Amino acid sequence: MKTRITILPGDGIGPEVTVEAVRVLQTVAAIHGYRFEFEEHAIGGDAIKRFGSPLPRATLDAALASDAVLLGAVGSPEFDRVPPNQRPEAGLLLLRSALGGYANLRPAIAYSSIAACSPVRTEVASGADILIVRELLGGLYFGEPRGIASDVATNTMRYSVEEIERVARVAFEAARKRRGKVTSVDKANVLETSQLWRQTVIRVSQDYPDVTLEHLYVDACAMHLITNPRRFDVLLTENLFGDILSDEAAVITGSLGMLASASIGGEVGLYEPVHGSAPDIVGQHAANPCGAIASAAMMLRYSFGLEQDASDIETAIQDVLEAGYRTPDIAEGTGGYVVTTSEFGELICQAVAEIADMRHAYHAV
Question: Is residue 52 packed enough to be buried (19+ CB in 10 Å), middle (13-18) or exposed (0-12)?
Answer without folding.
Answer: exposed
